[in-house]
Amino acid sequence: MQKSILFKNANIFFSDEGKGTVVVLIHGFLENATMWKNSIPTLSKKNRIVTIDLLGHGKTDCLGYVHSMELFAETIVAVLKHLRIRKCILVGHSLGGYVALAFAEKHPQKIKGLCLMNATSSEDDEARKTLRMHANKMIQNNFSTMVRMSFTNLFSKESSTIFAAEIKSALKEALQTSLQGYIAAQEGMRIRPNRNHVLVENNFKKLLIIGEKDPVLDCQTSIEEAEKTNSEFVLFPDGHMSHIENKNQLIPTLKNFIKNC
Question: Which domains, and CATH codes, for the chain?
């Protein structure tokens, strides 16, 4: 069951289940805390699992028209302070990974481990930045179509068939994202800086979960990033949405990572 706190006059919704090592699961763009619903029952048996609806996603309010990674991270700090949690493991999917990096940059002493799931510590290249700007212009006139297109493009034709029911459910959640939330997150991702140094300079446990067929992040580039930043990596056979496409591999991978932190 979700609870909420007030942060800068915005309601931030979160859940807190189980006891043990604290693991904060951070969802991606056009997602919310429900993306972790298949992982929580298993992971919360031996760990304390915290999930948070990021600004402009799920039930959480927006805060202006730019949700920077630093601002997202501040909301996580606020929730952990409210729960009196001093140290945790962060697992971030896509946008959630960028937020986790911003958190780790400012509060490395609070981190026991950092898992980037289909995410990168590098900044957007110019082509991606241009794409985000274009999307923010297009979305204002055709929200539903744009969300459907950007979401379904994350899956291969094969995955679209195999996981049709799961994708339909996830798309329903994506369409609940507000227009302001969409624009603010896209702009925040566009302006985020390179944070390779966060992985290089810190000694906490680091893991990259990489999709071989990820249409957003090039697989070989991600492997090279892991090697250059002294991070462990796991290669999944499918794409960007590991919690759907590789859910049977994801939970044991996360359990092993948590255990070794």
Answer: 3-260 (3.40.50.1820)
